[in-house]
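Sequence only, no structure available. Ideas?
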Amino acid sequence: MFFLVQESSAQQLADFKYGTKKKKQFYGNSHFDFGLLVTNMSNPGAPYPEGHQKTAISFKILSKRYNLEKGKKRFYWQNKSVGDMFSLMGAVLQDASNAKRKEGSTLSHLLGFGSWGWNIKKPTRSSAAIGFNVNDFVIGSHNFERTPTGQLVNGKTIEPQGLYYGVGPSFFYDYAISDKLVLQTLTTYTVGVYRLVSVSGAVKNDQYQKPQLAHVSLDLLSSMGFRVGVDYTRVIDMGIYKNKTTRLDLVLGYLF
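Reply:
I predicted one. Tokens follow.
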């Protein structure tokens, strides 16, 4: 019985610490994270989906401040645009033709994804919070027609496209698997409310319904400071073109 009580006590979220030398308390403090990404981009709603399957290496920057007490606030912010830009520059340096607009879909952002939440339960082995997000996102789908011989012609970027700003609900859930592993999840839904700028050369239609965005992030934090995770983001096109751009990121990060 003593060992069961001791194990249960060790598996409280409030006790989770990380670090290779000096252990740091995770909850109640601000943290910065750098993560390498293996990114897969796809768009099953495109006229020729095979031309929209892309895989690249990138990185993201992440910042969190999670409090645990019921009613207290937590904050989450991530940025992938810097890593995406470096990834694109690397592709252009390898092959100059990558600077030309090719068939494919894009899903990134400028400033990043930001979510705020307030805890709705007393923390034990698990914690939950609800709140809202303010996100920007960049999307665009460039498509070509095919001639009978398979030649790509008449390339154009159609709606929805551009840099959007949106808001929506966020839901946080954390669970202590053990005293050395913690699972953190974030689920958001963002409704696009304003387009700041369009993609250059796009077939623009200001009356087209603004897109929405669904996002799920799963992070497994270790007491050594390493983090593995999965980010899944999907465009929800409210108009006639049914853009289904999907971004799947496999993440390997380290907490500072």
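Confidence is low (pLDDT under 50) at residues 1-9.
Hope that gets you unstuck.
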